[in-house]
Design goal:
Layout: H1 2-9, E1 21-23, E2 26-31, H2 49-59, H3 70-94, H4 100-112, E3 114-116, E4 122-124, H5 127-139, H6 145-148, H7 169-181, E5 191-194, H8 197-201, H9 236-244, H10 263-266, E6 275-281, H11 298-304, H12 308-319, E7 331-341, E8 346-355, H13 373-393, E9 402-405, H14 418-429, E10 449-453, E11 461-469, E12 475-482, E13 493-498, E14 506-511, E15 515-522, E16 525-531, E17 539-544, E18 560-563, E19 567-568, E20 574-577, E21 580-588, E22 598-606, E23 627-629, E24 633-634, E25 651-661, E26 667-676, E27 683-690, E28 695-703, E29 713-716, E30 721-726, E31 741-746, E32 752-760, H15 768-774, E33 776-785, E34 808-816, E35 828-834, E36 848-849
Helix pairs in contact: 1-7, 2-3, 3-4, 3-5, 13-14
InterPro entries: Macro_dom-like (IPR043472), PARG_cat_microbial (IPR019261), Sialidase_sf (IPR036278)
Protein name: Microbial-type PARG catalytic domain-containing protein
């Protein structure tokens, strides 16, 4: 092959070649001395609890063999994190200046460095024991892959993999490719290691620093951390490009093309002057997977036809200090690999993404598989998001001449369902990242931002949305799951965050034993109050002190049971009035028929003894003894007027605590509930709380647009009006209609009017009846908000019943839309804002009265 001979004759020699070592079995193979594994770069600002937990959990594994020292590599990284935290904490005594944000984040990271003991309580990691374990590991010979190939463990040396004899011709041929162009291997700056998607997101700075010549100064030695975030030196080129070509201004064609050739052929079909990035679905603990055994999956095919195997060994013996572990939620990135085609005598330069799927074949891997289907889906999306972001970060120029080859979807995915891998790609490729602009739902005219999507064939659906804004400006959203596909799964709520006004959403945490949950902010803590299941459920409260990243309280993340029994609810308002916190709930009496056996109740907590700040020892909300509950009130059929037609399944549920003032200025507490009134619709039931006796009494049935579906009522003191997002029933023959979302309001809680009748509507082109069957914008949770605020610490979402939350509204929607198999079985959670809602009812006479 002529091209190979030319490369042999012109192999580049590094300037520091005199420092290289040689492999004894083949002196032509050169390599740099291995670095100290503890010198690994730690992206401390980017670390999250999930990444840290992944490392700690893997090190707790009892697997005997440590293939390619993967666990040793993770232990080195964990010790490096600890060392950096120690340095930051000592800086206070040494008066060394660190950015205040990194100091605060370091203190949070320290709280994650824990493990559970036998009783389930958290305790600090045994650092001395881990240090001894690491020293012992450093003295051990490789007892995994080397042992399989009969390598003498006493004489083993780095890069022994390149000298194993009697391997398949494809492996020998690829060694020839390596010797042509990479006999000295890869420069460390050509090999990148990312621990999670946030590390890549943080490469995009929001501010730029001008140097003396007026250009952008972004060297990795930059000391102004408020302007430029620290980054791995290998990302110097990526940072430069992201400054010059921000993702929001790039010229990607956003075009997907299907090709029928294998990936080793497809690279030669791309225009010769283009940048090519190839995805390698890799083995997370073994460089090349089954390459040495001549396996025939995607990773191996890539390596047989390229010099890429050497890059993986350079990751192992270089960047990773002699071990190999692709981060569970991250990826590796290789610059300037070469593909070879002997038949065409062609060579193509290619970059390679290295990422791993979970192994569902039963074969033990480095990381444990998620235990639940929703967790598997969320984690897989998080993995995919990281490697797609790595491709974005390392794109050359403005992206107009970059091709990303994903390979056959599902190939190399370790037993994952092909369709599930496809859905993960769909979710990630349609999401926003790294400052990108545009609507995630590109096939919609409704200007919705998608928080999360779930594929319909799984029969797992998304429910119970709840949303709050924190004083930092961060948006925090939660939801749970339902449906036949979720029947055997734990009842945990998923938490997503957005730091860019809802444009991009990132999975942040789970809330264990949490269902039908409402989020609320009180004294800079986030509280989640709901039940712990969807049957035979207790009322449970959780708390987060770190902006939703974790939900630990007093050493565990199980939350606190407030009341035991059988309860049901929805994400309905948490309200404070006269220093008492209220939330509506329903007891679900046997035989648990829906909704006939729901019994209305209100739980409440006296806050008069609450201090100005919250801590674990003095948090009244986390003490069950501070809470009380009203006696559950059974629905009474005698309340139904005799003029009504026969109501097939009368009952009420998902009540709203609403506060009003009497003529004497005394506060009155109401519970306004959804009324299951089919064949009628647009009705609600009003109960009142007698505060002295803590009992409920019936007030009336009122006309209420959308009263057949869950709603949330909040009060605006500026307009002295109550508001609710509702699903008005406009087709009388379909009382469960949810395909229209409107904004309603009332001055007196009795006379409800429509201020905006079609905030969301079906734009799919369905017929009326199909739209009723398949489209729903429902279960909306929302908050008053002020998006125009430029203050660094804007107001958090307010739960005082009469506070002025701002002139805008933010709302989170359980969405059945474009692919849902019914209006009820929601396939998305979406987010939107409504600006200047008060202008909608400036002239009260123009609002439409809603007549039942």
């Amino acid at each position: 092959m002529a091209k190979l001979q030319q490369l042999h004759d012109s192999t580049p020699i590094p300037s520091d070649a005199n420092t290289f070592l040689s492999v004894a079995a083949n002196p032509d193979i050169k390599y740099r001395p291995m670095p100290d594994p503890l010198s690994v770069y730690v992206p401390l600002r980017s670390l999250d609890e999930k990444t840290v937990n992944s490392i700690v959990a893997t090190l707790s594994s009892s697997e005997r063999k440590d293939w390619h020292f993967g666990r040793r590599t993770l232990l080195a990284f964990l010790l490096a994190i600890r060392n950096q935290l120690d340095q930051i904490e000592k800086s206070k005594d040494l008066k060394t200046e660190f950015d205040e944000q990194i100091i605060q984040h370091a203190s949070v990271v320290r709280t994650w460095l824990v493990e559970k003991d036998a009783s389930g309580d958290f305790k600090e990691l045994p650092w001395r024991e881990l240090e001894e374990k690491y020293k012992k590991m450093m003295l051990e010979a490789d007892n995994g892959m080397a042992e399989v190939f009969g390598i003498n463990l006493h004489t083993i040396e780095p890069y022994y993999e390149l000298t194993i004899p009697d391997l398949h011709a494809d492996v020998i041929q690829s060694r020839e490719y390596m010797s042509c162009f990479r006999s000295y291997g890869w420069d460390p700056k050509e090999l990148k290691l990312y621990w999670n998607a946030q590390q890549l997101e943080d490469l995009c700075s929001t501010e730029e620093v001008l140097n003396e010549e007026g250009g952008i100064d972004i060297t990795s030695e930059q000391t102004n951390e408020k302007k430029i975030r620290p980054y791995d030196p290998s990302d110097e080129d990526a940072v430069q490009t992201l400054r010059k070509y921000p993702v929001s201004e790039r010229n990607h064609a956003v075009k997907i093309t299907y090709v029928h050739d294998g990936i080793e052929k497809a690279v030669f079909d791309v225009p010769e002057d283009a940048q090519i990035i190839v995805l390698n679905f890799a083995n997370e603990r073994s460089p090349g997977g089954g390459y040495l055994r001549h396996a025939w999956a995607q990773e191996e095919i890539i390596l047989y036809n390229s010099d890429g195997y050497r890059s993986l060994l350079d990751l192992k013996y270089g960047r990773m200090g002699g071990g190999y572990a692709i981060p569970e939620f991250g990826a590796a990135y290789v610059r300037d690999m070469r593909f070879f085609d002997k038949s065409l005598d062609k060579i193509r330069a290619v970059d390679m993404l290295v990422s791993a799927c979970y192994c569902l074949t039963g074969t033990t891997q480095l990381y444990d598989n998620p235990r639940t289907i929703p967790e598997l889906i969320a984690n897989t999306v998080e993995k995919f998001r990281a490697f797609i972001m790595a491709a974005v970060a390392n794109t050359k120029g403005d992206g107009s001449n970059t091709y990303l080859l994903l390979g056959p979807i599902g190939t190399g995915a370790f037993g994952n369902e092909t369709k599930d891998i496809g859905y993960a790609f769909r979710e990630v490729l349609s999401s926003q990242m790294m400052g990108s602009k545009g609507k995630p739902l590109l096939d919609s005219s409704l200007d919705l931002n998608e928080v999360v999507y779930h594929n319909e064939p799984s029969k797992i659906y998304l429910g119970s949305p709840s949303i709050v804004r924190l004083s930092s400006g961060r948006l925090v959203a939660s939801h749970d799951f339902f449906g036949p596909g979720y029947a055997s799964q734990p009842r945990n709520a998923s938490v997503y965050i957005s730091d860019d006004e809802g444009q991009n959403w990132v999975f942040n945490s789970y809330i264990k034993y949490s269902y039908w949950t409402t989020l609320a902010v009180y004294k800079d803590m986030i509280y989640a109050i709901g039940t712990d299941s969807d049957e035979n459920a207790n009322i449970r409260i959780h708390r987060s002190s770190d902006q939703g990243a974790s939900w630990n309280y007093n050493g565990n993340d199980n939350g606190i049971i407030l009341f035991r029994g059988s309860y049901a609810t929805g994400p309905t308002p948490i309200v404070i009035a006269d220093q008492v916190m209220y939330r509506a709930i329903e007891a679900w009496a046997a035989p648990s028929r829906w909704p006939n056996n729901f019994q209305a109740a209100i739980i409440s907590c006296n806050l008069t003894k609450s201090s100005s700040t919250i801590n674990d020892d003095d948090d009244p909300l986390m003490s069950p003894g501070n809470w009380r509950i009203t006696p559950p009130m059974t629905f009474n059929n005698s309340w139904i007027p005799k003029t009504f037609p026969n109501i097939t399944q009368p009952g009420y549920l998902e009540g709203n605590v609403v506060v009003a003032t009497s003529p004497s200025k005394q506060l009155r507490i109401y519970n306004i509930l959804r009324f299951n009134s089919a064949p009628l619709a647009n009705l609600a039931i009003v109960l009142e709380l007698e505060q002295t006796t803590n009992t409920l009494s019936f007030v009336s049935i009122i006309s209420f647009p959308g009263g057949m579906t869950k709603f949330t009522i909040r009060y605006d003191p500026v307009l002295e009006a109550y508001f609710a997002f509702v699903n008005p029933v406009t087709q009388n023959y379909y009382p469960t209609q949810r395909n229209i979302l409107s904004l309603s309001y009332s001055k007196d809680l009795l006379d409800w009017k429509i201020a905006a009748d079609s905030l969301l509507y079906d734009d799919t082109g369905f017929t009326v009846n199909d739209s009723l069957r398949y489209t729903g914008f429902h279960y909306v949770d929302w908050q008053f908000d002020n998006l125009s605020s430029s203050a660094p610490n804007r107001n958090a979402s307010c739960i005082e019943w009469n506070c002025d939350g701002g002139p805008d509204m933010i709302y989170l929607v359980r969405t059945s839309y474009r692919g849902a198999n019914s209006f009820h079985n929601s396939n998305r959670i979406t987010y939107k804002t409504l600006k200047n809602y008060r202008a909608l009812i400036k002239d009260d006479s123009k609002a439409k009265s809603w007549i039942r």
